[in-house]
Design a protein that fits this description.
Layout: E1 3-7, H1 12-23, E2 27-34, H2 49-63, E3 66-71, H3 73-89, H4 96-115, E4 120-122, E5 127-133, E6 139-145, H5 162-166, E7 168-169, H6 177-186, H7 208-212, E8 221-225, H8 248-255, E9 266-271, E10 294-300, E11 305-310, E12 318-324, E13 330-331, E14 343-349, E15 357-364, E16 367-377, E17 384-389, E18 392-398
Parallel strand pairs: 1-2, 1-4, 2-3, 4-7, 8-11
Antiparallel strand pairs: 5-6, 6-18, 8-9, 10-11, 12-16, 13-18, 14-15, 14-17, 15-16, 17-18
Helix pairs in contact: 1-2, 1-6, 3-4
Length: 401
Amino acid sequence: MARVVVGLSGGVDSSVAAYLLKEQGHEVIGLFMVNWHDTTGTLEGDCPWHDDRLFAELVAKRLDIALHVVDLSEEYRHRVVDYMFAEYEAGRTPNPDVLCNREIKFDVFLREALKLGADFVATGHYCRKQTTTLPDGTECYHLLAGSDPNKDQSYFLCQLSQEQLRHALFPIGHLLKPGVRQIAQEQGLATAKRKDSQGICFVGKVDLPTFLQQKLAKKVGNIHEIKAEWPKFGRRPLPDYANPNPTDEQLEALAAGWHYTVRDGKKIGTHNGAHFYTIGQRKGLGIGGRKESLFILGTDVAENVIYVGEGDSHPGLWRPALKIANEVMHWVDPDRTLATGDTLRCEVRIRYRQPLQQATLFCREAGLYLLFDEPQRGITAGQFAALYDHEELIGSGVICE
């Protein structure tokens, strides 16, 4: 049996993960991370981290396992929050949960666990790991979706490396959420009925503009409406799915984001800073009196202008393709890496909980292009596109624009 350090977060999932590992005969040690102290922007009703610690202590006592506490707040601020601020300031929309897993839970936390003599680290993620042995005797680790389709969290782990997966265990990945709660109830764990955490990893549910104002100042700018009849919408080329080898120029045109100027639409209001908004966002505009909701189509942080359109079917919300720069493409299994000129049929999600979308990946010198079988809503620069081969997550990359 192995020595396993479990990231006890104070939630039901990590609690049951610890229980299952102990039942399997492993030596289990709990490690609670303190990653954020500032409550600026945190919405009322969210428990601060010290409540999480209390629940982790109750679970550790119930399971009769040691619990260590480590403060990783400086690393978290530097690696996750500062990155998040910088991306919003640049007009992109980051995913801090993906960064938190890559940079904190399976890097800084892993190093702390190894100091405790850990053979493995375990978390309460709803995903699975599979190991295969290659002909040369080395092991290859595969990241699979969780068995619960409503809770699958493999997307958040899309940037993990082989070395990180080598040390990782996901004890509840084969279970459904109701089953996890039932186990917690049966074992008398304090977290059995505790609500799942929401919002930013280790920060909680926040009012995003208020949270971002810690570093990004308010700056009043204009809101311009782009009508669905804007002429350039009708000029974009349509995908030629009968052509298996489109040119780089064709792929670039299909993957390009929409770009607007103030001359393309009428001013209909003001906002407090373009960097507080993201493509596809509906709430927070403060403009009513419409048959359908207004959605953000684009932001220009240089000119401090945001562009909106009415209705979910507005053409400015939809695109057939996206681009990933070669240098930011990450392959979970390096053997799946594409060479320039290669093509791959795959399934893709560009946000958590999105159903998998059928697409073709084209690897070119100018970058990697994902051409979807159906147009996608709200493709957003800074987000991660995760690639799947059926239930296996094979790679991911940051969307260019």
